[in-house]
Amino acid sequence: MPWQPRSLMSTKQEFVQLAMQDGANRRELCRRFGISPKAGYALLKRFAAEAEAAFTERSRRPLHSPRQTPAALRSVVLELRRQHPAWGARKICRRLKDLGHEQVPAPSTVTDLLRRHGLIALPPDDAHADWQRFEHELPNGLWQMDFKGYFETAGGRCTPLTMLDDHSRFALATIACSKTDICTVQALLQGILERYGLPARINSDNGAPWGSPSAPGHLSTLDVWLIRLGVRSSHSSAYHPQTNGKIERFHRSLKAEVLRGRTFDSLAHAQEAMLRWRDIYNNQRPHEALAMQTPAQRYRMSLRPMPTSLAPIEYSERDHVITVGWNGFVKFQGHKLRLSSALHRLPVALRPDDLHDGCYDLYFCHQRFMRLDMNAMTASN
Predict the structure, then answer these.
(1) Range 143-298: architecture per CATH
(2) pTM attached to this predicted model
(3) Are the CB atoms for 233 and 226 separated by under 8 Å?
(4) Which of 111-125, 264-278, 323-337 has the highest mean pLDDT?
């Protein structure tokens, strides 16, 4: 199967990045990228012989010249800043090193150069103090998922769907969407899971289509699908966007480096711009929270492939198993309890708490989603 033409260069770069990692299953990677093993190994062979030239025309201009002078280096610094107006001196210095430049100036020197040429912007109004950062120890421990606020194009409204790996900040998706319904999101998410494999958990907010805005804590249709795949689904607390802080910060970069001050002719035009920037963000843009590494240098594909079918639902012998009825209702010990309409006709388990008589934890597959206290006849998440 040939390489797909859309965003061909960045797709090939991402394939090689993942295939060169220690322990990478290259045949499985070829399957996820939709190419034949022959095509994948041919690209890796070309990359070993030609490096970056394997992705572009053979006449590609070299990144630097031995005859470069300090004046030429200054020109490169200024051009990098013009290409990436939101990058500061430290990012530019690291990028110069990654591009192979020697005797890279200090960040303070770059700052002075940018200031002399009027390329230093005023501090943003929303500047804030640093806070302590938390991240998962390994890639694919947690993905964060959300919609960036919509903007108008000449062809209609665009609402970008974004997804980020918590550990590496690797951007798994930046997709221009005209719809935000459950069918659209699930179809796009399936393609992402087929390429990168299954994470341990995906976090999103409580709004539609992720959660149940009218009944926070109840499982949504998307929750049920993810849980059946073997992924834990979680949601940010109401009015606490910092729970999904990394993707909120990612949205700030997307707005500053792609969307601000630009107009787009169509959804496809916006998608092209976001894909181009995603490649830069993952593979070129140094990240201060990653000790100036790029997200692609820290990301590893999941070892759990997307299953071709949903596994049967099984519980232990000590569980009380009940099938959920219409509108999400179940009956237990003479009481009627509403769970979630997304669980209609699916079995759930009430697991007794050995330390608290009359208390039960409610499970759907592997995920606990509610607690029931029969003594007070109350249910909580």
Answers:
(1) 2-Layer Sandwich (3.30)
(2) 0.72
(3) yes
(4) 264-278
